[in-house]
Amino acid sequence: AQTVTQSQPEMSVQEAETVTLSCTYDTSESNYYLFWYKQPPSRQMILVIRQEAYKQQNATENRFSVNFQKAAKSFSLKISDSQLGDTAMYFCAFMKRHSGNTPLVFGKGTRLSVIA
Amino acid sequence: DTAVSQTPKYLVTQMGNDKSIKCEQNLGHDTMYWYKQDSKKFLKIMFSYNNKELIINETVPNRFSPKSPDKAHLNLHINSLELGDSAVYFCASSQNSGSTGELFFGEGSRLTVL
User: Fold this and answer.
1) Which residue of A3, A39, A45, A92 is the best one to mutate when testing the B interface, meaning the one whose CB has the most B CBs within 10 A?
2) CA distance linking residue A102 with residue B56, whole number of Å
3) b/e code A78-104 from CB counts within 10 Å (16+ = b)
4) Are the beta carbons of A50 and B102 separated by less than 8 Å?
5) Most exposed among A25, B62, B67, B108, judged by the fewest C-beta atoms under 10 Å?
6) Is B83 an interface residue toward A (CB < 8 Å)?
7) What residue ranges in A40-101 does DSSP mark as E strands?
8) CA quadruple B51, B44, A2, A75: dihedral sign
9) Cα atoms in the 13 Å half-sphere on the side-chain side of B5
10) Could you read off the pLDDT of B23-81 as tens digits, one per residue?
11) Interval B33-47: pLDDT, tens
């Protein structure tokens, strides 16, 4: 079974600064997806960024980027120029990639507070 | 238009009651899910349906019964509610064939059992 570990239950960062959220995972699969989802106080789950395991290039979405280390099974999220609206729970998630549907497996989340 | 919609968004009820949460997606996806988020924010898969067929049924009490009348709808019925059922329940959908892997979530339904 796949497991996802987020070792930082809470983090804080000053507005405009950069912060990195850690995630490691355990799997015997070679073909999979990794995701970061954001859950603000509104409760909505929002996709932040997505990485396909076969792609060596790290995914980037505006101020959000990942450091994907496949051999180390590590998938950290870097948020640059942090904004107050980035305050949220952040979940790292794993999904096997094959012809059938498989569920997302989530880490326990990191609560990020952006401080003015 | 909301892509994945759940009703009700809030539900407060007494122990022992039976309640349902409805979910509809207008994305044309063929797979739908129910996740439970506990008080510590941990998200755990409960059920998954693909084209109305139950695919995943995790270790969930028999009091929970999902029903998918068509591939755009996945409802969750809970019998004999217990205090431990209090949680936020998320419905989600994805496109299985040619999938990018992304799940689209509803806004969640917060269930409080008194």
Assistant:
1) A45
2) 8
3) bbeebeeebbbbbbbbbbbbeeebbbb
4) yes
5) B62
6) no
7) 46-52, 60-61, 64-69, 74-79, 88-96
8) positive
9) 6
10) 999 999 988 999 999 999 999 999 988 888 888 778 789 999 999 999 899 999 999 99
11) 999 999 999 999 999
Q: Given the structure tokens 């269930």, which residue do they identify?
A: B111
Using DSSP's 3-state secondary structure scheme, residue B79 falls into coil
B99 and A101 within 8 Å at the Cβ level: the answer is: yes
Give the residue carrying structure tokens 């409960």.
Answer: B46
Going by C-beta distance under 8 Å and a sequence separation of 6 or more, which residues neighbour residue A44? B105, B107, B108
Partners of A94 in beta bridges: A34, A105
CB A59 within 8 A of CB A49: yes
